[in-house]
TrEMBL record:
Start and end residues of each PH domain: 14-112
Gene3D superfamilies according to UniProt: Pleckstrin-homology domain (PH domain)/Phosphotyrosine-binding domain (PTB), SH2 domain
Record-linked SMART domains: PH (SM00233), SH2 (SM00252)
Biased composition (Pro residues): 331-347
Pfam families in alphabetical order: PH (PF00169), SH2 (PF00017)
UniProt keyword terms in alphabetical order: Phosphoprotein, SH2 domain
Keyword Isomerase: no
Signal peptide: none
Protein name stated in the entry: Signal transducing adaptor family member 2b
Upper lineage: Eukaryota, Metazoa, Chordata, Craniata, Vertebrata
Amino acid sequence: MARRNGRKKNQLPDLYYEGYMEKRSFKDKTSRKLWTCLCGKTLFFFNDKRDEDYVEKLDLCGLISVTDDSSPDPNLDAARFNVQMTKENIKFTAPNAESRELWKGFIHCVAKLEVPLTLNLLPGQIHILRETVQKEQERLTNPEPKPSPPAAVKTEMPACYYEVPYLEAELLLEREASKGNLLLRPGKQKGSFAITTRQDVERPIFRHYRILPKPEGGFYIAVDKPVHFDSLHDVVAYMVEKTDGSFTPLNIEAHYDKNISFIATDKENGERTQQPLRPPEDPIPVTVKARNDEPEPVKNPPAADKRVEKASVTDGCSSGETRPVPEPRKLPPCPAPRTSAPTPPAAKPACPTNAPEKPRILSNPEMEKQILPAALSELKQRLGQKTKLLA
């Protein structure tokens, strides 16, 4: 069970405690599991914790006692207790013993405005009960003015309200007989409503009751002895409670199909059949690279690189996996030798090395430029020697 502090529901007092319990009174044939909320001095019962409209309520102003029920139960973890009122005795079943003690404590606190001393609770839980008594005393001594509900709250309808006319209401109760036998619908007059019921006595019997609005606010059932109510929720709760549970509000859960289908006509024989709508094709899955070290492909590789990428070698493994040959290391291009000016001689290294120097190979233009001066100087020397001999 969960406890929510300070939460307020529409048109309900402050919430002190809530949780699932099984409720059974003298008029109930079987127990019902309901979501129970203790708001002020009233217990409100809901079919589900998410519902906004309560189906029953119990005013604790006439509380006499809250005692344990030691009768055997098939569920060993369940814990029963009795709420003795001035007019009736109501049996409740909590999920476990701890939640039973808490429910007994909260009910006794708001009804008697005191903390009971016979509960088996922890000190922290006793402190929460004392705070609950203080809050309830402040609420009773300083009642807050009720603000006018917003437009959205004013238009809220019970869960069994359906926008159907007179005859369609009977057909709806006939078709959904297993989900309820009472519904609320709009009436013929403006602002009026009607209740339609269905019961089986040798054959289905339908009854219709007019619900008319009062000038000062509220509604009443237009019968021989009118019954007055503050809201339409109270009208539905009255029909359920005062008939010993013979009427069950109709509650139809919405059903949604899982697949889309349509009616198609065969072009050859004209037969009409229901065909499923084909779902869109799944997107193409993204392929993952087999090896992380594989280089990414180049969109427009040069011709030399294409030849390298096509070549591959086979590993020594038995699987025969192939991998691309690594690309050769690219070197910067060598510039062509210039013919306009002679190349300067290479500088000698500062430190002599033991390795013999390689002979320098000169190109044809350089050889001509160096051989011609040497030949001229040699001819001059020979001519000089001959002139000396002749002299």
